[in-house]
Structure formats: structure tokens, C-alpha cells
Known about the structure:
alpha/beta, four-stranded mixed beta sheet, 14% strand, rSAM, rSAM_sf
Amino acid sequence: MATSTIQFAPNLTQAQENDEHEMLHRWMRLEAEELTSISHIKRFTEYYEADPEFRNNIVISPAQTVAKYNLKIPLEEIRWLWDKEFAKSQQAQGIPFPPSIQRFIDYENAHNQWVDRWRSQMPDSDPRFQSWRDRQMARLDGEISKLMNAQIAHSPVCFELSKGCSVGCWFCGISAPRFSDIFTYTPENAQLWREVLEVVKEIGGPAAGAGFCYWATDPLDNPDYENFVKDFHAILGAIPQTTTAQPMKDPARLRSFLKFSDSKGFAYHRFSILSLKILENVFAEFSPEELIRVGLVLQNKESIMNKAVAGRSLEKQQKAGEFDDNKPVQSTIACVTGFLFNMVERSVKLISPCKADDRWPNGYRVYDRGTFETASDLRVLLERMMTQQMPLGIRSDALLRFRRDLKHENLDDGFKVSTRFLTLKFRHHPLMKELGEIILKGDKTAKEIVAQFEQLGVPTAEINYSLNLMFNRGILDDEPQQG
């Protein structure tokens, strides 16, 4: 469990994250040998994760297995890829990774950096939006763990271009409804789409380009998806990351889309693989080199990847009596901390990931919602949401209490709040313990708390600072009453 101590006095400085992002031009211009090496190591890792027969055979007969699966990887490097203990022992002796494997690691790190390029910093965005997102991310460190939270992109926006999903995965972490309608690329819809993107750009700045165009939908259900993507790129400056569970529905269409995406710069897409048969078909259709910038989400039953316990997966475990709330598992697949649009309904929700439970079974909170008909309507709606839901500091009339997942304990010189993942200590002031007890009761507003401490001689600025510090660290309850 991570532990952090928070001081009462306002001289605490917050660490500033480095907002420099590595240039990715080098990875878009791979030499033929590099392309083959990286893509074949990538395919090895996908086979290993998905297929128990491959995992067994690569240990017993590596040469025959590499030949059978047409993997162009030097035999002497194979053990580095599957035997973690061997790799650790080699590194402990000062033996570095083979150059090809190190190059693969560097490539994956560059990809991860690209995915997270706007995770923490949103230049030119509305400061209310940035501050609200920061608080949500701080909350999740304690709610689902820093490790799990670090794997969430926290994209500021996403768009559904259809209503429902045609795939119907039994484990869907956000319980996608059945496919029923499409937002077609008519002249009227295209104009509205472009205007919506402009409004989103005003609020999110360049980081809006980290959004994507699916949620409880599959992008390939919309026959006009590519047209919407072209507008997205023209206005927001990026190709939206695309995930489909239908990679074999129309391979020619998908191959054309990937080529178009590559022509616009670095982008990374994903195929959700639902069975070993689909994996075999995908690998037969697409070469390792073609899928170098396509991640495979290996959801087949034989995969060593664990499914998130949220949505339909959570419902199934609860019905079977198998759900264990104390088991450390991924408890959300939600990756948006911002605005969720459905263009068919012309609706928008303000959402943030959370641990899936009875109150939020799909693993995300809904802070606000509304509908719009025009871009002007949308601008008014989003401004209203930010005004009501995204204060830059604690409102004086806000009733203050700790989050429901936090355990409060008194210390000699303060108090601490904790989950099984994170502990935060607030101490080094004679009245800090009393402040914690007041917030624990949850029956006083910020204004009332300030007034009470003023009577004890604590300056208004000091108590306001301390309350806002707790506010920004995400420990004060802001859970919506209704979704």
C-alpha cells in the first residue's frame, strides 16, 4: 500500500509532471529489417498470451514452434521472451537484452507514451475541465490502485456513431445494448458532426485529439465510419484510436483504413479477439508487418489476459455467486474522464471511471447528462455542465464528507484516510485531527467548517488551503446521487 503525508500548512508544493512527449517520427520510418524484427516479436507475444498450445510448445521445442508459426526471431533470443526468471537472472549479471528485443521494448514504450500523450496535461483546455479530470484521476489512485489507474488513458471525449453494438460480447464491461441505429454521414449530419468537433476543441484544446469514436459500440457497424474519422483528423489533428471486435467482417475495408491511418502519422488501433479461430483467421489475413501498429485485445477463453469484472462480466459473477470484492482484479474498462457523446441520440454525458459495483455496475460514474440539436445548444449545455460540476475550488455551500470507500483513522497529530491501495496522512497541526473528525461526520458545509476554525484562531486562508488540498487530492465525496 502506498502512503503519502500531507502537510496542513500551505507551503506544500505539488510535483509537476513532465509534459514533453517523445517524437515518434523514428518509429514511423522503420527500416525493413527493424519492421520485420519488431512485428514478429510482437506476434510472438500475442501467440504466447492467447494460445496454450503455443505456450507449451515454445518451451518444449522452440525451434520447431518458431518454424511452424513462421516467426522470424533468432532461436537464441526466444527464451528471453517467455522465461521471465531467465531474463531477470541475465540482467542481474549485467547482460543486456538482445538488441532486437530492446528495440521492441523501446517501440512499445513509444507507443505507450503516444497513448498517454494528453493524459495529465491538456494545454489550451478550459482550466475547469483540466482541474476536474485531475481530481478524478487522483480519486482512482485509491479506488482501483495506482497500477490500474496508470493503465487508463483518461481520454477527454469519445463519440458513439451508432446506437448499440452488433457483436454482443457476454463479458462486455459496459453492457453495450443491442445494435439498433446508425448516425449516417448525410450532409446535415456531417455538418453537425464537424460543428460538434469544433465545440469540443474549444473546451479540450489539442487533447481533444486523444478522443475516439466508439464506446458501447463497434466502429465497423457504421458504414460511414471512415468519413467521420477524416473530419476528426481535419479538425482535431489526429486519427482516433479505433477498436473493433469484427476484424474479419471486411478485411479489405480494414486494411484500407489502416493504410489511411498510417498516411496521417502515428496512430495505434486494436482488434478485440474473441476466439482462437478468429485469431488464426486474423493472422492468416494480416502479416505481422501490417499489424505492427494494431494491438490485439485477447479476449478468447484460453488467453492468460484477465477480463475486467464490470458490466456483464460482473453481473455473471454475481449471479453465479463467484464475485469476490476483495480479489485484486481490473474493475473497469472505462477510459474516458470527460464527455461521452451519442450522435444518434444527440446526447452527451459527463463521465469518469470508477470501480464497478452495485451502484455503478458498468465501471463509470455519470455526473451529468443532456441533449442538443445544434452546436449552439451543445456549447450552452457543456458550459452549464462545467459550471455546475467542475468548480476550481470547494464551494462554500458544499457539504463536506469523505468518499464512501475511505477508512478514516485518527493520528496523534492529525488523521489518515486509506483504502487497501493507498494511504494519505494529514498531520503536523494541533487541529488537524478535529478537522478530520468534522469531515467524517459529513454534516457541515465548507463555510461552516471555516467559521468554526476561525473561532479557534485558524486563519481563513489556512483552513481554505487545507480543504482545497483534500478536494484536489480527490478524497472528498463528489459521487453523483443519480446516474
